[in-house]
Amino acid sequence: MQNISDVLELTENIRNVCFLAHVDHGKTTLSDSLISSVGIISEKLSGKLRYLDNRDDEQRRMITIKSSSISLLYSKYEHFNDNSNSSSPKNDKVLINLIDSPGHVDFSIEVSTAARLCDGALLVVDVVEGICPQTRAVLRQAWLENVKTVLILNKIDKLILDLNMTPLEAYKRMCNLVEQANALIYQLFMEEVMKKSDTPDVTKSEKWFYSPSEGNVVFCSAIHKWCVYIPEFVCQVGQRLGISQSKYDVIQKSLWGEYYYCNKTKSVKVCKNQEKPMFVQFVLDQIWKVYDAVLKCDINYIEKLAAHSNVKLTSRQIKILETTNEKQTNNSSLKNFELSPDDRDDLLQTILSNWLPLCSGIFRLIVDSLPDPITASRKRLKKICPSITNYDNYDKIINLEQDAPVVLHIAKFLGSDLSHMRLTRDVLHGDEQADDFVAFSRVFSGKVSKGDVLYICKYNDNKLKSGTVNCVNELDEDDESMHIKVSINKVMILMGSELIEVDKAYPGNIVALSLSTNQTNLNTNTQDHVKDVMAWLLSLTDPHRRNLYTLEGGYNRNKISRTKTLCSVDRHLTLSSDPQFPPFSPPTHELNNSIIRVSIEPQNVKDMDQMLTGLALLYTADPAVEIDILKTGEYILACCGEIHLERCISDLTNLYAKIPINVSKLRVSIREGIVDLKNNISLHLLSKKVNFPPWKSVSSDDPLKSHNEESQKNSLQEDEEGYKSEDKSHIQVIPELWITQDSINHGLVYFKISEEFVLFLTARQMNNSVLQYLDENSKDLKGLIYSGEVPHRFEGCTLNDSLNLVQTEIYKLMNTNAKPGKSGVKMSKDKSAEGGTALGDLWGISLNKGTRCLLFYRNNGQYFANKSQNLLTKMQWTFIDSYNRSSIFSLQNSKLISNIISGFELASQSGPLTEEPLRGVVFVIEGIYLNKDDQLIGSPSSSSISYNQLKMQRNKDSREDNLNSLNTDMNKDFGNILNKYTSSYKDEGSKHKDGENKDKDDISMNKSDELNEVGSSGASPETSIRFSDSCTITSKRSQTLTSWRIMTNMRHLCRKAYMQRGRTRIYEVILRLDLQCEQNVLGKIYNVLQKRRTQILSENVKEGTTTFVIEATMPASESFGLAQDLRSKASGGVIFHLQFSHWEMLPDDPFPETTMTDSELEDDGFNITLLLQSNIPRKIINHLRKIKGLATEEKVVVAPEKQRTLSTKK
To answer: Which residue windows does the record flag with biased composition (Basic and acidic residues) (predicted)?
Structure first.
């Protein structure tokens, strides 16, 4: 351990690498071999112990579930001089921080965190299975993190033992795999070039290509512990041919490729006919001879190999060889006598590991081909921290100068027990506890030691004008809480599951940090603890978690963990000694789609508090977990797959909550969409016998209508028959404001508040190219509009410039039929009928919780009659105004428009069909009527509040405001828990002055009314206004009932505009299925797939085998139990892989009967029951509504009576 501590400060002698591969391609076996080479485990246990798989479920399933790190010390001097002692020079030693990451698709998030911390990666590929789907996925993740990769072709022994290939066939197979890997690299390179709109330069991509002659490819067998690393193997070839060392470079370049060695001329020539390439001549032929001798028990040849390789056979091996030789001598029929598999593998390991040592080749590959932290930082930091180029000390950081600020990135938090100095497993042993968290971190600059105080970095737009500092909304933090300080309690090195404390961490080190905030309160009680956990759970899906703190700094972050240590809300943090340092962007989560959802509850209601705490801890420990709370009070746990879900439930039960938990049946997320009809439906022709939606006759799916039907009667029109009309062509909204009857057929809806304010709205289907653009750029757009973080592709632009570029790209896509890229748009000359200008001005984007919706504004005169459009108010508002917090308070009608956008986002996150997010919907505000004398909508002067005034107001009312914030934040399902905790606050609130009490009573009354309006909408008023920066501009104490009515009525107006007959659709998750099976079970496999709505894309036979490779797509809802069905039908002879592919709209209308006339319904040949039985979207909607406790069309017998028959007379 002392030797490792000596190398920590030598940054140029550090290599941070991780294993990337498809599942079961040999990552953990390779890591075992490397660990055994430094003496941590026995060489005999290598490949069997699976040292880094320290969880019980990992050992049981034989797969890696959680990424693990270990530090290994490698010395070239010791490897080249076996007889030397450990007195090698200090600078010759290299510290290799190795991270073993999972290969299963359910745990792709672990790959992202590992890639973020590392500078290089070992891409392991099974030569038999080849490039698999997860191989492509992990390579893409490494590319996006700008991590250099090297290629390891593993399991070469299978080509000999299983496929019986000749050396030449194996060589062609390996050449093909190298070409496929390079094709993936080139594809990723071209995507990036197209993203930047640059001219492709092939020479730039060649530095990323794999070439064995360049020393970035290794051929190995981890099970037999040998590898061929050409720069190392060329020495053996040169000695055999008698070539001087000066010509080794020529031999190295010729050893891979179409070159052969001519014995006659003693020269290297190009292969023209059937000559064997040099790699076959000097490498593969020799390896094949060794395997052939062992398989045939050629004792003489084995003895020669042992003598040539200086191998000392064990006494057991010598005895086996003598016994075999004696049997062959006495009985000539035993010439082909074969050893047992264990004896065979043991003998091959002994011979080959001494001739071609595995660890020596892999270590040299890492040291020679992968960059050190200094070299990597100059290339990586710009990509993983786009704003760093504008940082003043950027040059000091990349050059690692002594006065450079401390910068470290936390990729995730690991559960641990610091009293035993080890990470917790999935099962606690002895007196182990899972109460602590350590930060899995990488130091990029500066030195970190125990007792240091660092800041949690937040994004700040450094290009904001100095005069805008007073335009701060009340929900932003003040100077004191703007930057949270964190103390370093311990600095530790990770050795698998063990933690070893060190004095300091230096640049390039991967360490575990024990953190705590400076405001640790050891006297916390259970009441406050439960409140804090519940407030945190409510804020998990909100991108403005930093705005969800209370006026005193928010819920106590220390209370979330039971040992008062830091428990991050964000799960990815950047810490620095300079509070102005920009934070790193979150790791890439493209494949992290939490599509499997279950509802959970404790078996005993009294354990609810423990479950809440356990959920908070699980959320911190697993970056892939998502938690949601339904209106019914259910707690929803979303995971990436069935194995991931099983692991989460196990950890929640055994580690974090430590209580028995009930879990519902699996269900899959969907998205609610809309389509544009070619011909508008005349509403008066449709049958009135069919309700729309079908469950409307049972009970309204809108709780607001049932609670406030009388109060909303004049403000929100619920029924199509409710419009006031004097003739058939015109409909009067308010005096002098008329709309046409045709506008109703086009889906125009509106709401009004008395005669002072009217808003008209329509809903459209989003262009596919725009939808694809939002999907591909969702990460950048979320950071831009919610946090003000400028994306990497807009490097050098201000916040306003970036918002303007996004708006321009969306406008172009809506005007073209071009396919978008992640960077922007390729314009085409053909323009569609509607574009950005046709729909008006872009006001808002909704991306939270998987939504993909846009909000536009325009004054559309064709919907209004008698020149009524002249009465509409022209709103001067832009997309930049919606999300630029620095100037939003100085704009006219800012409060009004912010509440409109808030209502739009609320509606987008909870659709009317199943309360699932909306996707591909464009809401267009067709006009706004606003009475200029309306005093309910604040003016710029009244809505602009100085920063100092806000700060004084916070301190004055912080205690009571915490209560109001808590009461409004909690959903109704928290009422039973919170009732016993709020009495003390109410008593204290009654002690205020009479004048203050009067004001507070008025506010409390308003908030009570607001809660009735919004409380059942799936989010509390306090939470609702924080879905975007434009939503957070409104002061809690300055809100009036009208402002909340605008927000809630806008939400319900969006829902009504969406719920048009014949236009509703749903999207479902489509998974990509890659399956391999033998020919004799192919028919049974197809029988299973056909029952699950599977679409076959391709079917091929793997070269040289009878194995079929099937590529298909399957709905996620049909994938449950697939593994059991396939393996039972194929008797286990099937390998398959499922991963997220895309969202796909189901073409069928869920409610086809609502678009029919009376004559169509009464047709003798029409059977509505048969129609609905084959309607898949209808089944999915009814299933989800029933699970969520929403009203369905299912008829329930209220008072059943048992029928008595004459036969039984009972």
So the answer is: 702-712, 985-1010
